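The records we work with from here on pair a chain with its fold. Taken together, the tokens spell out the fold as the letters spell out the chain. To see the layout at work, look at the sequence and tokens printed below.
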Amino acid sequence: MAEDCARRLSETDGLDKIFTVIAASLPDRLGETAYLLACEIAAGDLMLSQEELRLLEMLRSRLKLGKLVSAAIERTVRARYQTL
């Protein structure tokens, strides 16, 4: 599976094609769940790079998530990782 993903990513417009497959494979009702999972993975190391933020933006767009929904998901993830 990882080799197939790496091959697809190395193709022209590979990342765009991967996002197309993700969006086409998910029922609309699971778009928010997929975005939440992506945010959780990105936040796992407690640091978000500009590249990670751009990938999340691209995924959010491809899944057609609204700004308010996306912001709520992002805030929820941020709250989970806050420390004293």
Notes: The chain is about 75% helix and 0% strand. The chain has a mean pLDDT of 91. The radius of gyration is 14 Å.
